[in-house]
């Protein structure tokens, strides 16, 4: 895209985001400091970003985001005709309505703006409140950002943005590197694919792409931004991948034998890791290097046989795996970021389905359905958990979850009779009661648009439908993605 197109897309994102969404920031100790003169704007962003606390990949990403937002101009201002009126200010374009604690004196001071960006982004691990990052506009600035870090001469290791796993199931969705959502659904005739034709916009028609019939799907992003899709049924396991970020896709390639379910997530170093369940328990396979080849299949030390598997990432970047069947619920976790794995641990009784998400503060939230409804368990610390708590909700339902733009977790449940959802009443807070979300169906998944709005995909034997947030607490009606319903899923 040209610079003018990137700026136009960014302005469109902000108009929508600022009109319907709020974000929450807990800041401490932001101080104003004089900004030095620099020959290149990226050098200024590198220096103040480093002084704010960004390190390693997080520093490179922070500079790239600032370049996409303001061209690293500390005096940059963007004003829009929103109600209430608001301005984006300074290097990282801190909004004055949603972040009034960052006054103009701070916002237009390079170091203070960097300090605020460090707090908002949770130390460079979460850039989801920046529309340029969600839309992938920062990628074109990564080389310039890396060159600025090289000139700065500081290469201490540090966390990059955390890549949280997407929900797996019969229908899956994730954003391409350019911010457009892509969705895949597995019917009896194989896998079907549709995609947004513009960021936050409308959808293509469905296309049939072959692959295993009636499969369970999982989707993840390689370190270079290329999406990779995995599909398993009782007989075969195959995968396909984008040939370039946001580009065309490869054909299907063999990935192993058949099984029950799969999940995929990215290690802290960017290597994808895949878990698959079958009659003998849970097995895993992982990339030998980012964007590269794969290990052989290895046992995980057990795990529930023929289980439903989901994956999430802890606040420190370690992957955690959760697996449930009709009798048992177990989980295991990495002992270190990108490292080895624990033994399986008991996590509760058996059930029908599960979903896992994370709070704004990084604590994991787990929901599981069964014959008595939906139950809930959550981290009380990095390694400690609450007991199970009942929430009501549809019995034996399919579950999915996603985070609203302000960081609140929303949970969606569907069974053959009803669809319902509940949501956190505030960031890191307790949940509402279940509310109606439609009639029954067979599968559900949720994903976030580049502007943060949740998009929910539901299936039934007639096809695939979707609903999307029109505001922070308002939703569209159910509709087909385009003029056809896509594959029916029983």
TrEMBL record:
Entry keywords, A to Z: Signal
Signal peptide start and end residues: 1-33
The protein's name in its UniProt record: Transglycosylase SLT domain-containing protein
Domain Transglycosylase SLT residue range list: 47-132
Organism domain of life: Bacteria
InterPro entries: Lysozyme-like_dom_sf, PLL-like_beta-prop, SLT_3
Residue span(s) of domain PLL-like beta propeller: 166-483
């Amino acid at each position: 895209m040209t610079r003018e197109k990137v700026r136009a897309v960014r302005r469109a994102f902000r108009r929508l985001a600022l009109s319907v969404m709020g974000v929450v920031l807990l800041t401490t100790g932001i101080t104003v400091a004089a900004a030095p003169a620099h020959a290149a704007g990226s050098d200024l962003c590198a220096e103040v970003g480093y002084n704010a606390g960004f390190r390693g990949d997080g520093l490179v990403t922070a500079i790239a985001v600032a370049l996409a937002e303001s061209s690293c101009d500390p005096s940059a201002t963007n004003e829009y005709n929103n109600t209430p009126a608001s301005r984006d200010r300074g290097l990282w374009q801190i909004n004055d309505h949603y972040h009034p604690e960052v006054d103009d004196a701070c916002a237009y001071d390079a170091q203070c703006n960097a300090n605020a960006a460090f707090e908002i982004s949770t130390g460079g691990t979460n850039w989801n409140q920046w529309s340029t990052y969600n839309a992938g506009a920062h990628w074109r600035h990564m080389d310039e950002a890396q060159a600025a870090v090289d000139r700065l001469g500081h290469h201490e290791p540090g966390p990059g943005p955390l890549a949280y796993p997407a929900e797996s199931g019969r229908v899956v969705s994730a954003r391409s590197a350019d911010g457009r959502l892509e969705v895949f659904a597995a019917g009896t005739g194989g896998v079907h694919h549709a995609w947004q034709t513009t960021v936050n916009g409308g959808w293509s028609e469905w296309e049939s792409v072959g692959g295993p019939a009636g499969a369970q799907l999982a989707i993840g992003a390689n370190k270079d931004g290329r999406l990779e899709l995995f599909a398993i049924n009782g007989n075969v396991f195959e995968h396909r991948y984008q040939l370039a970020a946001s580009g065309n896709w490869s054909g299907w390639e063999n990935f192993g034998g058949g099984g029950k379910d799969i999940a995929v997530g990215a290690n802290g170093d960017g290597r994808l890791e895949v878990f698959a369940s079958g009659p003998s328990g849970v097995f895993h396979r992982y990339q030998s290097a980012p964007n590269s080849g794969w290990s052989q299949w290895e046992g995980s030390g057990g795990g529930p046989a023929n289980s439903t598997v989901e994956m999430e990432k802890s606040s420190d970047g370690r992957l955690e795996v959760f697996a449930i069947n009709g009798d048992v619920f177990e989980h295991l976790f990495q002992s270190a970021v990108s490292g080895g794995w624990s033994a399986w641990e008991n996590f509760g009784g058996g059930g029908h389905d599960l979903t896992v998400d994370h709070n704004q503060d990084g604590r994991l939230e787990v929901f599981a359905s069964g014959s008595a409804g939906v139950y809930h368990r959550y981290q009380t610390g990095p390694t400690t958990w609450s007991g199970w708590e009942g929430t009501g909700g549809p019995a034996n339902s399919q579950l999915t979850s996603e985070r609203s733009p302000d960081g609140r977790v929303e949970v969606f449940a569907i069974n053959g009779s009803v669809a319902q959802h509940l949501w956190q009443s505030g960031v890191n807070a307790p949940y509402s009661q279940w509310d109606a979300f439609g009639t029954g169906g067979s599968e559900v998944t949720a994903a976030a648009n580049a502007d943060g709005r949740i998009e929910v995909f539901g299936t039934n034997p007639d096809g695939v439908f979707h609903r999307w947030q029109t505001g922070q607490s308002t939703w569209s009606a159910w509709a087909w993605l385009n003029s056809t319903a896509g594959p029916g899923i029983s």
